[in-house]
Amino acid sequence: MALRCGLVGRPSCGKTTVFNAITAAGASSFDAAELHRATVEVPDPRVVELVRLYQPKKVVRASVEVADIPGLVAGDAGGGRTSRLLAHIKEADVLIHVVRCFPAEGDPTPVHDVELVDLELMAADAATLERKRDRIVKRARIGDKEAAQELEDCERVRSRLHEGVPARRQALSERERASVFECNLMSLKPVLYVANVASAVDLAGPAALALTAWAAKEGAEVVSVCGRDEADLSELPPDERAPFLVELGLTSLSIERIIQAAYKELGLVDFFTAGEREVHVWTCRRGDKAPAAAGKIHSDMERGFVRMEVIPYADLVLLGSEDAVAKAGKRRLEGRDYEVQDGDIVIIRFTPPRA
Ligand SMILES: Nc1nc2c(ncn2[C@@H]2O[C@H](COP(=O)(O)OP(=O)(O)O)[C@@H](O)[C@H]2O)c(=O)[nH]1
Ligand SMILES: [Mg+2]
Predict the structure, then answer these.
(1) Which domains can be identified in the chain, with CATH numbers?
(2) Ligand 1 centroid vs 214 CA: distance in angstroms?
(3) I need a surface site. Which of 13, 81, 215, 304 has the fewest CB within 10 A?
């Protein structure tokens, strides 16, 4: 399933612009209240190289689903529009928090803007926790130990939200996480920040740096992008963009950097199956063992897992073919305990289940 990214941020911070830059969807900024969605393939230079080597009939890249979620309107906390927007944020696996780092009616105020959005998310989370409290408080009072524990955990998380600490920075214990799990708290979601700057000279300007320093406190990734320039670029056919990218002073498309940062934030890795029939990108979690990764391809491969043959991407590109990799002794046999690495090209050996 595609990774779901939700773009959030203050009104007019450039969400729709960044959305267009990364999806080339050409969405209009005109109706600021409109939600946009698009699914995009993750650009990956390694796939281009694998296609060159294997000349496959079919290529399946990783894809991500991006939603451009309009800014919340302050003071509409219980309103229908707000709850619809919150539902979209809740669907996301990772939040891409776009921050205005270009001047518009005054200098950018990145840290202030981020804190305002966080406050909105935390207020909504606190309300969710209150509803859960109201649901379980009776059971807790009549001696249901489990309910009492959950209630205590939820109240602790809620009181820290009121102190201004988003759930993702509360260092929750396993038990606390379990207690709030069903609430799907928005301030618990992994976040990466996008500093939306006016031009390439500002990529490391004061606003972007202020945001970076702030994000470092929670160990979050920051990607600087020139949203407007790249949104303009996205209107060109893909193979005509490169020269302009250089002219704008950019080294890579922001989609690549944003996706890389999202993968890092979420601890995801890509691995490949490759042959004349198909080159296919698969995604698993960092630390997943070989059978679990095989299960991403087919559940039978996980259940009947025997071993995994691994060709590291770097060796394949260096030596030019699977045979050359094997001759050089770089093709490896791995067992159930192997942790799949980013860029592994794998062949799964498994026993098919009996019909
Ligand atoms: N100078 C500059 N303006 C931008 C940039 N990104 C967005 N804008 C402008 O800021 C305004 C709001 O952008 P929009 O993407 O609609 O913001 P949203 O409300 O967050 O979706 C528009 O007028 C954009 O042209 C940027 O990188 N540089
Ligand atoms: Mg918009």
Answers:
(1) 287-350 (3.10.20.30)
(2) 22
(3) 81
